[in-house]
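Q: I'm a student working through a structural biology exercise. My instructor gave each of us a protein and asked us to get a predicted structure, then write a short paragraph describing it. Mine is 6-phospho-beta-glucosidase. I'm not confident about reading structure output yet, so if you can add a plain explanation after the tokens, that would really help. Here is the sequence I was given:
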Amino acid sequence: MKRFPDGFLWGGATAANQIEGAYKEGGKGLSTADVSPDGIMSPFHETDDALNLYHDAIDFYHRYQEDIALFAEMGFKAFRTSIAWTRIFPNGDETEPNEEGLQFYDRLFDELRKHQIEPVVTISHYEMPLGLVKNYGGWRNRRTVDFYERYARTVFTRYKDKVKYWMTFNEINVVLHAPFTGGGLIFREGENKQNTMYQAAHHQFVASALAVKAGHEIIPDSQIGCMIAATTTYPMTPKPEDVYAALQKERSTLFFSDVQARGSYPGYMKRFFKENGITIEMKEGDEALLKEHTVDYIGFSYYMSMTASTAPEDLAQSKGNLLGGVKNPYLKSSEWGWQIDPKGLRITLNTLYDRYQKPLFIVENGLGAVDQPEEDGSIQDDYRINYLRDHLIEAREAIEDGVDLIGYTSWGPIDLVSASTAEMKKRYGYIYVDRGNDGKGTFERKKKKSFYWYKDVIATNGESL
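A: Happy to help. First, here is the predicted structure for 6-phospho-beta-glucosidase. I'll explain a few features afterward.
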């Protein structure tokens, strides 16, 4: 029987800014998420007084024990979350961390350990101190590398006995698609935006390598990974121009894992920079640092595939997915227009493993949908079960293909504030949270049908699929 390996890390994935709330408690400073009421594509908002569901989120900050007990009931082996940078360094440039913030994550990780759940921790996940944006220009500024390294060393040292699996940046390639969220970038009039985004990415690559170096020094048995938003891209036709367009689209993502997993800038990007007037400022020693401190594993999100075309009539269509691309006529779409492609997950797994021969970790995969409680209060989310089952079957096939897969943490095991749209209406969880887009609700937790389904999947190590 095709099966998942022993010790496979089954679980769920979240982000601090999408679940915690308590955005001004415990000495926490303002982050970019706190001034992004419309989600990751929000432009910079000078004030934080608009209705922003991130501010209270699902109140995990006060309810984490209840929620972790539910994860344990499902049998979670791992729980991916992030540390809110602004709980540790409220403005980002302090020399000493905020003890109250450190204590919160002590309690959180202890609670996970109590239930034999392995924490998988993202150091920076779609939020950074607003102080670093306002005072330094975010990741455009080389000094931010130093502030990040101090933050990373602080949390490695504090949690060295509690956390083994780490990721340096969430979906690092999103700096090209959502530059304020991904890089704290506010563009200046007349500047070369592409140059600024790729310079910010270089600073993040250096910061990531420094974090790998620090993590291995401070926690010798740690596993430090990168994390990309992965999307396999198909050519719309066998026309060579379409095939090449698909290759280029894939490379725009794989560049980010190439640098972090292989340790150098690939030739195709050097050509791209030259042809687009992009100059990356590097310090002496940067290239050696990237080469010597590559990641231990590749974490990635997978929600959809993409299609590339050079035909004007195709390019004029509405975009099929969050990161662009042409609609694939062979695929169905979610309520938010994301095209559903389980086979694409197997292709993605094989592509990444063929390329890097490093362990892989699916750290996000899930279906955002509108869940309507029935008259009896139950939530019959068979559409979510079908989506997840189909993707897990393809993941199992990839393991048969020889892919080394560490684990699977589905996105949003509990309803949370959507990153793409900043809504509660777009639900992912096995656990329903009573809160609406208007911010109202009791915050009561309720198990969906998928809760029991996933519990059975974990209990049988995937054999029930």
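A: Here are two points you could use in your paragraph. The chain has a mean pLDDT of 95. Residues 9-459 form a domain with the TIM Barrel fold (CATH 3.20.20.80). It's a good idea to check both against the output above yourself.
Q: Great, thank you!
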